[in-house]
Amino acid sequence: MRTLTTRVAGLVAGAALALGLALPAAADTDDAVIVDIEPAASAQSPHFDATGLSAKDVVVGPDEDGCRYVTVALESEIGEGVESWHARVDVARGSRLVTWVAFYSDRNPDEKRLQYCPSDGLGEFTLGSTEWWVDYPSSFRSGVDTTKGSFYARAEAKASISSITRSGEYATVRATATRFKPYAEPEHVTFSADKAVLQVKGDKGWKSVETSKLVNGSASFTHKSGAGQTYRVLIPETDTTTEAVSGSARK
To answer: Do 26 and 106 reside in the same domain of the chain?
Structure first.
């Protein structure tokens, strides 16, 4: 403070001399003019801290194949003494910036809506980074918060058992799967997935007994069992498709 005080005192004295004014003598520079400068927020009290970003996942299907609004939730901690703030949250798919969402301290600061359209693509959408601006009574600050969140847009998937054949103790189950493809004809297309699951119905519900890969919409399973078993096929959820469960079939 001594350095700042001395500098300010010198400036004031110089201005007084230029105007032909006299200043009272000061016994020490500590008695000179003091200018109060608002301290920056401490690490324990940040200007703006985004502590969470989230949004509900989106399903694209025949009944919901158009644009719709997605609510983005922002959790934040605001520094002491901040009068107002606003923030801009980036929304990206992979390395491509899709859009951004603006939040304001005086306009429902915890939730905002963004518009998602199937043309934006399927898969994971990243929320953040967040560029922010805060206003103090006599100053402002700005910065970037790197907190991330995400939501997924998935196409509706369907699965079905195409055939069951039996040879002695072994049953061979073949299944097919398709997913919805917006703006396409036909609107359902085959897809591949790392995992497809064959399930058998027992006294306590469905039990997974075999796994296979789904390749170009087809999967095949061979299961050792007695006759009269009830089967179904489950395709687990992926980044781009919903979970799909076939109807049951008995053999």
So the answer is: no
> Please, are residues 130 and 50 in contact by the beta-carbon 8 Å criterion?
yes
Tell me, yes or no, whether 145 and 200 share the same domain: no
Q: Kindly state the tokens that stand for 47.
A: 């200007």
Residue 133 within a domain: yes
CATH number, domain containing residue 182: 2.60.40.10
- Model pLDDT for residues 43-74, shown as the tens digit of each residue: 334 799 999 999 999 999 998 888 999 999 99
How far apart (Å, rounded) are the C-alpha atoms in residues 97 and 114? 13
CA distance linking residue 145 with residue 181, whole number of Å: 36
Long-range contacts of the stretch 97-100 (C-beta < 8 A, 24+)? 98/125
What is the bridge-based pairing of β-strands 193-202 and 205-214?
Answer: antiparallel
| Full strand arrangement of the beta sheet holding 111-116 | 48-55, 68-78, 111-116
pTM: predicted TM-score of the whole model, two decimal places: 0.76
Q: Domain of 169?
A: 156-250
Task: Report residue 15: phi and psi, to 5°.
Answer: -65, -40
Quote the Cα angle for 142-131-139, to 5°.
15
Q: Let me know if residue 41 belongs to a domain.
A: no
* Pair 132, 65 in one domain: yes
